[in-house]
Amino acid sequence: MTQSDNAKKETFGQKFAKKNGWITWVAFAAIAVVAVISLVQHH
């Protein structure tokens, strides 16, 4: 992997993070809720 490839990937990652950051948080929240529900049901 060359330096330019790393730079491209980094900028794309930053753009992706800015654009889809809320999607990540929604997914994380959904996973947390599902985990809590499953834990509560098991007890």
The number of distinct helices, counting runs of at least 4 residues, comes to: 1
Tell how many strands the DSSP assignment holds: 0
Structural class: mainly alpha
Radius of gyration: 17 Å
**Kindly, what is the distance between the CA atoms of the first and last residues, rounded to a whole number of angstroms?**
50 Å
What percentage of amino acids are in beta strands? under 5%
The portion of residues assigned to helices is: over 70%
| Low-pLDDT regions | none
Principal-axis shape equals: elongated
Q: Report mean pLDDT, rounded to a whole number.
A: 82
SSE sequence, one letter per element: H
What characterizes the major β-sheet? none
Keywords: Membrane, Transmembrane, Transmembrane helix
